[in-house]
Request: fold
Amino acid sequence: MTTTVPSTMGFPIHAGTKILGIETSCDETAAAVVVGGHQVRSSVVSSQVDIHARFGGVVPEIASRAHVDLLTPVIAEALVEAGLEGIELDAVASTVGPGLVGALLIGVSTAKALALVWDVPFVAVNHLEAHLYAALVEDPSLELPLVVLLVSGGHTMLISMEGHGRYRLLGSTIDDAAGEAFDKVGRYLGLGYPGGPAIDRISMEGDPHAIAFPRAMYNDGLDFSFSGLKTSVINHVRKHPESATADVAASFQEAVVDVLVHKARKAAQQIGAKGLVLGGGVAANSLLRERFLSACVEDGIHGFLPSRAMCTDNAAMVAAAAWWRLGADGPSGLDHGADPNLKLPLLS
Ligand code: KG4
Ligand code: ZN
Reply:
């Protein structure tokens, strides 16, 4: 991958362009400085997970207030770690959607204010596009077209990345996102919030073949469905309250991972992808990571797993995506708002 983008409409960017990224779309307050689209000089994430855990999920109003309290110190830490003064930056970027509108607005207004004060461009970043860039930040040798399996709390998508900003949707969930299924099943099993990491941990003590949960739409295209699986878990526990929680969790996780890996490798074969990568919070899952890499080795495809910190919400991926967007589209207007329902821009 090249590190300079010839641009006609965009803004001149180069390997030394320093961007401050800000991420506040949900319950992580994050700031990072990334140089040239992939050199991470600092990445600070303050998770609000403990604040929301007692409510069993993210409380939007509490998330917004926490972002207000945390964002300034998080940005200050990111600048100190990067060894930079704000004035030395070339642009300030922020996630503008999708996400919780109040939470997004804290990051967007802060980024615009800093861009104005430092007299540098503001760059509006799509959170889903940022997740797509996570792998490229850590492995710039990845060649396109890439298939990205993006699995988070709100999305489950198989995307073909044909070029920078050129995406095709190959498949997506028709109901619950994979992370949502982990969180709902985790809550039902009394494992607390968020369910994903808790199921990951407890599954290590369970038998993944104890219960044969269904694999919905397994041989049916590249779309996913997880709501029936969640219902099967609930029905099983009602009928068999004696089942060990670790066995139920491990069997559930096995079913989710089985479908995700099967469809990801099918998608890569279908488009003749040069690489297959994971993105989004669920990509932190231990079993998914293990199975995903074995599948890539078996299929002889360049597979790459971003680090766990890069899979879950962070601002380094925001700053990286911003570098490409700035080069392609130029600065965003200071009247840019937040869009809680923002979609990934797709090729028709
Ligand atoms: O990408 P992310 O940090 O936030 C969104 O944009 O949604 O993803 C959060 C989701 C949650 O549903 C969480 O339970 C899930 O990622 N998650 C995991 C693991 N770590 C986080 N799911 C399964 N196993 C994990 N280790
Ligand atoms: Zn996310």
Q: What stands out?
A: The pocket of KG4 (ligand 1) is lined by residues 26, 152-154, 179, 182-183, 194-197, 200, 280-282, 284-285, 312-313 (CB under 6 Å).
